[in-house]
Amino acid sequence: MCTIKILIFLLVLAQTRSLNPGVKTRLTEKGLNAVNQVAQSLVARELDKLQLPDQGDDQVSLRNIRKESLTPPQSQMSLSTNGLTWVLRDFSTSIHFDWSYRKKVLFFTIRDSGSATASFSGVSLTITLAVDLDGNQEPLLRSRGCSANIGDFNLKFHGGNAWLYNLIKGLFQNSIKNKIRDKICELVEKFVNENGARELRTMKTSANVGDLFALDFKLTESLVFTPQYIESRHSGEFYSKTGRTTTPLTPAPIPDWPYTDNMLYIWVTDYTAKTAAYVTQSKDFLKYTITKQSLAAKDRNILDTTCSSRDFCAGSILDSLSENYPNTSVAIDIRSAKTPEVAFTTSGLDLKLYGQLTFTAGGQTFLSCLVTLSLSGTAHIEKEILVGNIVDFSLSVSDVTSTLGDAQIDNLNKVLNGVVSTFVQPALNDLANKGVDLPIVKDIRFTNAKLTFYNGYLVVATDVTYTGN
């Protein structure tokens, strides 16, 4: 189950397209070795608690089947261009059971009963796992091949005519051994194929960004297996849940990555951020009106046009405002004038917003302008979530139209800096701090995760632990 989950960690349901990925993940040999250790522990645990039901028909019955001894297998995983090969070896067990049979021959019924011990040693299993695409171009975890071997098998009867059965068991013991060997692969392949399909359905194909938007984690091509790593390549496109349209943007190629120190690497390109800018602009989402009612009670007086000399409000900054529009409040309508520009650089996130601002008082417009707001940000990993933070900003103003006179315009930058620092930056950080899920399954936890920005993309380098049962 652990191996299935790790592979599914690298999978999402998708149509296959020949595109550069917006998001990419890579599990290295170091990561696979950790998976192998977890898998070995899980296999040992599952075998230890395995209960075997009674078997039989009208003639032969096996009851009270129970393990007397068990040596769990050693696990080994390796990668190749054909997929992942999982080898379980040196497994041995001894099983005790009660048996009975009855058979009617002519007018007579022959019957006997007793107990027996079946001992297996030197049992090994080799299975190759890969990803196939079905008729709908959706990936399915499949077994590409299985082989099993039983080094030694011994059957010893007790009770009834046990002396006779032990004497002639050589006539049928190898046949039983071969049937059990073939049954091992049949059961394992069924487990992989059925559980693989079920686990795929639990894997997130997208990550919500607020209530209206999401990130697409569909595959852009089939899973890539090499002798050094397993790699998945995902769309990473930002889209609206209320009506998806294809963006005209395409991801740039992700440069080669020579490092293998960590178990897992995740690349997120600025294509994801650029599609977010494009979609939110095209959906007319980037707009907001600041009024007294939209502010916390303690901040509402700041929009008043009239206040005492001891208080701070819009009227105390712009004298003409209190003279021309007394005893009312200011409303600020903010709309994006064009698609924001966003880029990942070695310094972090660079975001440039272009806003059309309209100031009204008492329902009358007294000032409008264009504002270019440049923001810089960082990001980090918090509990497997990509979290951002705006750390600095600067702004410039152009195309100012005002009824207050030129003398009042000198204070406009002060007003706008106050608006950004008091309202815009905290609002952006509230959104960024909610973070975005990464394409992993629920039982994977990051340890010692490190996030680094590069020109055009960021990389999360981390080790992982498995916390599932």
From TrEMBL:
CC terms in the record's Gene Ontology section: extracellular space
All residue ranges annotated as the Lipid-binding serum glycoprotein C-terminal domain in the record: 258-462
Keywords assigned: Disulfide bond, Signal
Record domain Lipid-binding serum glycoprotein N-terminal: where: 26-243
Domain of life: Eukaryota
Any matching Pfam family: LBP_BPI_CETP_C
Any one GO molecular function term: lipid binding
The keyword Signal is assigned to this record: yes
Span of the signal peptide: 1-18
Family: Belongs to the BPI/LBP/Plunc superfamily. BPI/LBP family.
Protein name: Lipopolysaccharide-binding protein
Species: Physella acuta (Acute bladder snail)
